Amino acid sequence: MRFLAGLALTVALSTVAVVAQAPAGPQAGGGRGRGAQGPPPAPRAAAPFDPVGYWVSVVTEDWRWRMVTPQKGDYPGVPMTPAARQVADSWDLAKDRANGDECKAFGAAGLIRIPMRMHITWQDDNTLKIDTDAGQQTRQLHFGGTPPAAGERTWQGYSTAEWYKQPQAAGLGFGGGGGRGVAGGNLRVVTSNMKAGYLRKNGVPYSENAVLTEYINRHDEPNGDHWLMFTSVIDDPKYLNQPFILSTSFKQEADGSKFHPTPCEIAPPRN
After folding, report:
1. How do residues 247-258 score in pLDDT, each as one tens digit?
2. Domain ranges of the chain
């Protein structure tokens, strides 16, 4: 298990390193160049891969921190500052429940690691919508959007999105030659303006000034399975002493028959 976790982190770091070489501006799919006549296609039409559908978490690592509520003080793997440890060490589930704060574990920076099902749809030609059954949360990914300069912070914050083509270096193992097929490009999402929340269900905090950057790609397997991979990079100088990088996998389901929304709820830690 330690080997698999280390391998996942290595791949995540390699992905982020390659993505960092990508062009600054979005590149639309469909073969339209800058010199093509007419306006560029809307983000929905320009999508290099199809994210629409029902997707379920596949938990292959960090099982004890994701599938159950960890004990207070069980923080390995998170690059926490002393201030973060002080907050986490004072975590009290009963107090969160009494204050109506159970959704602190379902904010954008922590939500992706909670076992759940997602329903992804296009709200309009410029906005992807992600609904989750866990916590009944809704994220909106705005193409061409600008984060508000001020305003009320929310659990899911404000997410700007762009398509781009990821340069593929030899040896990463996701290109041709019999490996997984990368479906045309990536989706980059940057989320800010979040309410302070938890990275893990046992009170590991992120602050309201945290920034979540996600790189999302789709992999289609020869056996017909379809996967979405989220590589998340969380920056928070207050509570993290370095960027916190995570890779999370989702497998597509045939329909929404298993999608059952439930409110924010955290089970007590196991003794």
Report:
1. 999 999 999 999
2. 2-18+51-253
